[in-house]
Specification:
The structure is a homodimer.
Chain A: H1 20-26, H2 39-54, H3 61-67, H4 82-107, H5 113-130, H6 132-139, H7 151-171, H8 180-199, H9 213-228
Chain B binds a DNA duplex through helix 3.
Amino acid sequence: MYAMITFDRNWQFPFMTKTRSSAQTENAIPRHNYHHGDLRRALLDAAVQFIETHGVEAVSVRAVAKMAGVSPGAPFRHFATRTALLTAVAEEALNRLAGAITLSLQAAAEQNPLLQFRAIGVGFLRWAFANPTHFQVISARAVIDFEGSPLRQRNDAIRTRMNALMNEAAATGLLRPGDVGRHQIAARALVYGLARMYVDGQFPSWGLDESKALQESIAILDQFIASISA
Amino acid sequence: MYAMITFDRNWQFPFMTKTRSSAQTENAIPRHNYHHGDLRRALLDAAVQFIETHGVEAVSVRAVAKMAGVSPGAPFRHFATRTALLTAVAEEALNRLAGAITLSLQAAAEQNPLLQFRAIGVGFLRWAFANPTHFQVISARAVIDFEGSPLRQRNDAIRTRMNALMNEAAATGLLRPGDVGRHQIAARALVYGLARMYVDGQFPSWGLDESKALQESIAILDQFIASISA
DNA sequence: ACCTGAACACCGTTCAAGT
DNA sequence: ACCTGAACACCGTTCAAGT
């Protein structure tokens, strides 16, 4: 069975030069490109699907291309390297994570700073446990280009927010004595460690029921928050 | 320049069958095998060296073979698969980790259970920060065979020890109220999370000086221990 | 413009042949 | 017994050629 093949209606031989605007005027039919209309989108989806079954490291551009029904070289028109493809997946993932955290924060908007801080952790855990594939991708800094992408700023924004809440909590006397920065890093390491232990399949070996992983992880976070409370 | 090549003095054509003991009696000269005497050892060392510069995922059996000065197929006489090679590296790593923890525990033998529990964490951090390559390998469960190796039991032994110390701490009134198991997992996730954040290069993005990473991590652990103390 | 398909330099792994 | 080296089925990436 063949995929429906259409030719790019906007395509023109190089010598048939015209401006973009005039092309749009002359031909308003939305470009349904060769094969997909949106190979970029199809490749990102195929990559996620592949990662779900074979893991991040096993991703091959050729396999993803085959899943999308195109030739081995086609993806390189949209992503310069394998890393660029995986980085694009990571960017989508982090966008969704930021969304989940924002939602979680909004639900806790009326609560005290420490509980808002907790809400970020809960949002992170909820997201990571529900989207282990995406979490793995944003954590796999060996195969993505973290520094050379908006990933870095997104990450910094979340960190800054946590920082502000923690300082506010300290200022309003919600924390027991201790270095505020260290409490913050501890919370971050705790939540990150829990998520990693889960996706790395370490929960069973630590005597934790995987079906109650999220529930238990939130309970652990809550006990930690209680421990650092005044 | 050629590596020194010697022929296996114990080698014999298949039809020249004799028992192993008689072979040893007839020829006491220690087998200095073809090329290395110990290709297995050479491959493990080459693998670690390779991982230090290129990361675990990038390990190729061919590259490791070339580093050891042998043909592409040679390693497969000692390790059935690429995974088996990396798993062997992980086993060495975990043995050393267990050694470091034992040492750390011995130094704290006179202290209370909670401080002994802390000592395990400090031993782990010290080891992980000093041997990031080995830590990465034992954490990379995607590329090693964790379940089908002594790794699992080694890991369980450490966990059991932590469990016992934590229960003892609870029994002797050293812990503040809360679920003991959750305190234990929290400590584990905290320490694992810190080590991973370090090797994943996340310390700078969290505003932590990498040169003081170990020192700061221990301080964070100590503050956590203080938080859960009665 | 976007994709194909051949080509190049790599992989992991197997296996007959050499010593 | 242990290693070589060719072979097979894969990779990522490039690029001239097609539509």
